[in-house]
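Weekly sync, protein design subgroup
Attendees: M.S., D.O., the rotation student, P.L. (late)

Item 1: inverse folding check
M.S. brought a backbone from last month's batch and wanted to see whether the design step gives back something sensible before we order anything. D.O. pointed out we never logged the input encoding, so this time it goes straight into the notes. C-alpha cells as presented (295 positions):
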C-alpha cells in the first residue's frame, strides 16, 4: 500500500548537467518519470529524488500530455537551474506506535535523508527526517525515534561521528533498529495550563533538577527545586512542571542531557514555556530509562 505525496525541488546543474534521465510522456506513455540518477550528481546529492518519481511541472509549466522530446528540450534550455514539482510514493502500511523493530532502507541515493543526534552515553535518536528521502518514504521512521543499532551493530556507546560513518559507508541495504515510544499525555489537556516564565540568573544557578527519559520525545519535567537557586526565589516553577520549550526552542526532540546543556548555554536570560496540571501526575513506562540532571 502506498500514498502519493508531492515535493518541490530547487535543482542547480553542475558542469556535467543535472544528473538524471527521464522516460515516458505523451498520451499513451503516461507521466514523465525519473528513469535513472547518476551517482554524486546534483540530483543524487539533493537526497530526495528517486527513480520512478513523476515530474508534474518544470518551472511552473505542467507536463501533462507533453512528449518526451519536448520535456528533454525544456530541461536542456533551462539555463542550469530548475524548479521541479514531483510526485512520489510513500509506504502506507501498518506503522508501529511503540516498541523496538527493524527498518530496512534501500540506499538508492547517496543520502538516506535523515539526521541523527546524541551519542557518547546520551542515547542516539533521529532528529530530522527529510521529506522525500529514503527514510521518509519507508513510512516508518519519524523525528524523535531512538536509534539502537545500524546493521545489527549497537550504537549506544558510539560517538555521533562513528554512527554517521556507519550510515555513510553502508552498502545498498541499511537496517536500522528503531525504538519508538508511544507518546502519552502527561496531563489531561483540558485540565492543564500553559504559560511562559522569564528568569534572570545574573550568574547564579537556576537550582532545578530535570527528569525524564534518555530518549527524545518524552516529557522533561522539574523534579526538584533547590532553595539556593533562582527558581526557588522567584516561585515561578513547581515540582512536576513540564518544560515545553527553552527560549522558544521546542524540546520535543530533546532528551534530558540535551535540555540541561541548552539551559547552561543560553546565558543570563532564560525563557521557559511551561505546562502545569491542576491535578498533578506523571508516569513513565517501567522499561524506560530515566535521566535526572540538575542545572
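Designed sequence read out in the meeting:
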Amino acid at each position: 500500500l502506498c500514498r502519493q505525496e508531492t515535493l518541490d525541488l530547487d535543482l542547480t546543474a553542475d558542469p556535467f548537467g543535472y544528473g538524471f534521465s527521464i522516460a515516458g510522456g505523451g498520451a499513451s506513455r503516461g507521466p514523465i518519470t525519473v528513469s535513472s540518477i547518476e551517482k554524486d550528481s546534483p540530483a543524487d546529492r539533493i537526497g530526495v529524488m528517486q527513480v520512478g518519481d513523476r515530474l508534474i511541472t518544470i518551472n511552473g509549466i505542467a507536463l501533462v500530455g507533453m512528449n518526451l522530446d519536448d520535456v528533454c528540450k525544456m530541461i536542456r534550455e533551462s539555463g542550469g537551474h530548475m524548479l521541479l514539482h514531483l510526485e512520489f510514493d510513500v509506504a502506507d502500511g501498518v506503522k508501529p506506535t511503540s516498541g523496538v523493530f527493524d527498518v530496512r532502507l534501500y540506499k538508492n541515493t547517496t543520502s538516506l535523508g535523515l539526521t541523527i543526534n546524541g551519542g557518547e552515553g546520551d542515547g542516539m535518536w533521529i532528529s530530522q527526517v527529510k521529506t522525500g528521502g529514503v527514510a521518509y518514504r519507508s513510512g516508518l521512521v519519524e523525528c524523535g525515534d531512538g536509534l539502537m543499532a545500524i546493521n545489527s551493530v549497537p550504537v549506544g556507546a558510539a560517538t555521533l561521528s562513528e554512527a554517521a560513518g556507519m550510515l555513510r559507508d553502508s552498502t545498498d541495504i541499511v537496517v536500522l533498529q528503531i525504538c519508538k515510544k508511544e507518546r502519552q499525555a502527561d496531563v489531561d489537556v483540558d485540565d492543564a495550563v500553559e504559560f511562559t516564565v522569564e528568569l534572570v540568573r545574573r550568574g547564579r544557578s537556576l537550582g532545578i533538577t530535570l527528569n525524564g527519559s534518555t530518549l527524545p520525545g518524552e516529557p522533561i519535567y522539574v523534579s526538584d527545586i533547590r532553595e539556593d537557586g533562582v527558581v526557588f526565589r522567584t516561585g515561578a516553577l513547581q515540582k512536576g512542571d513540564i518544560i515545553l520549550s527553552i527560549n522558544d526552542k521546542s524540546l520535543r526532540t530533546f532528551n534530558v542531557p540535551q535540555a540541561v546543556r541548552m539551559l547552561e548555554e543560553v546565558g543570563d536570560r532564560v525563557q521557559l514555556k511551561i505546562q502545569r496540571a491542576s491535578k498533578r501526575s506523571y508516569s513513565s513506562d517501567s522499561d524506560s530509562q530515566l535521566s535526572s540532571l540538575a542545572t
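Discussion: The chain has a mean pLDDT of 83. The chain is about 15% helix and 40% strand.
Action: P.L. to compare against the previous round before Friday.
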